Amino acid sequence: MCSVHYNHTLAAMSGNDMMAHSLTLEQKTAFAFVGMLLVFLGLLIVRCFRILLDPYSSMPSSNWADGVEGLEKGTFEYALT
């Protein structure tokens, strides 16, 4: 009732026939580009997790208000400088 057809051509191919079915230059370039994007994504994920685990290590130790003298914190002029 149900007929199943198997394609045995790949198993019976010689070495020269297998070279004909290799990837083209465009496919190799696309795979290389996708691979580089995945590596970049992995690095960004690692960096984000490091910042989440220790957020204060990435901040500079100096205060952003250093150098503002003569103004009180909380005043309007202090916020503008």
From TrEMBL:
<dbReference type="GO" id="GO:0016020">
    <property type="term" value="C:membrane"/>
</dbReference>
<dbReference type="InterPro" id="IPR020066">
    <property type="entry name" value="Cortexin"/>
</dbReference>
<feature type="transmembrane region" description="Helical">
    <location>
        <begin position="30"/>
        <end position="53"/>
    </location>
</feature>
<dbReference type="Pfam" id="PF11057">
    <property type="entry name" value="Cortexin"/>
</dbReference>
<keyword id="KW-0472">Membrane</keyword>
<keyword id="KW-1133">Transmembrane helix</keyword>
<keyword id="KW-0812">Transmembrane</keyword>
<protein>
    <submittedName>
        <fullName>Cortexin 2</fullName>
    </submittedName>
</protein>
